[in-house]
Amino acid sequence: NAGVTQTPKFQVLKTGQSMTLQCAQDMNHEYMSWYRQDPGMGLRLIHYSVGAGITDQGEVPNGYNVSRSTTEDFPLRLLSAAPSQTSVYFCASSPRQGQNIQYFGAGTRLSVL
Amino acid sequence: RKEVEQDPGPFNVPEGATVAFNCTYSNSASQSFFWYRQDCRKEPKLLMSVYSSGNEDGRFTAQLNRASQYISLLIRDSKLSDSATYLCVVNIPADSSYKLIFGSGTRLLVRP
What we know:
The complex is a heterodimer of chains A (113) and B (112).
Chain A: E1 4-7, E2 10-13, E3 19-25, E4 31-37, E5 43-51, E6 54-57, E7 64-66, E8 76-78, E9 87-94, E10 103-104, E11 108-112
Parallel strand pairs in A: 2-11
Antiparallel strand pairs in A: 1-3, 3-8, 4-5, 4-9, 5-6, 7-8, 9-10, 9-11
Chain B: E1 4-6, E2 11-14, E3 19-25, E4 33-38, E5 45-50, E6 55-57, E7 60-65, E8 70-75, E9 84-94, E10 97-102, E11 106-111
Parallel strand pairs in B: 2-11
Antiparallel strand pairs in B: 1-3, 3-8, 4-5, 4-9, 6-7, 7-8, 9-10, 9-11
């Protein structure tokens, strides 16, 4: 069972570089979201999507873009990486928005130098 | 004020002890509540949902107090394997939908 798959697991970027964190789920879930987790802190919501073609901002959206062209995929784009974006990023999916449990990917550890 | 607040701990308890965590939330319109467990450098995993009438799953009991806007998690007969960070999760109304907001977590250390 694949569940939620995130790639890459680790990434090092230089300031100003751009990249896309990939997230895919094979459970036909409507709701997907991206979180970041910094040391000693909980997960902060970056962006979320309640279905294909629909995205919305979370608590900390600045510096990140998302799109949801299919139900399965929800990539997160860093347009111009900054050291403040060094974090662990988790993607999650849920059968429907906000009401059900969320299934998490294994995370992407990103360092921006 | 944060939307979801937890005592960061750590709670350091001996095996066999009973320990309780609280989590407060600010939005009275929240309808769904959960406890997640996160092991070091791993992704969060659902521990249990929290129902209005309270619910129990083995050694774990979750309760909701809507009047005071907090949820609690009670762990009885603590095991070494219970050592982890426990995250409180609350859904917050957002426009015509909801979004899930995580607390910063409470760290539990169970010692032999």
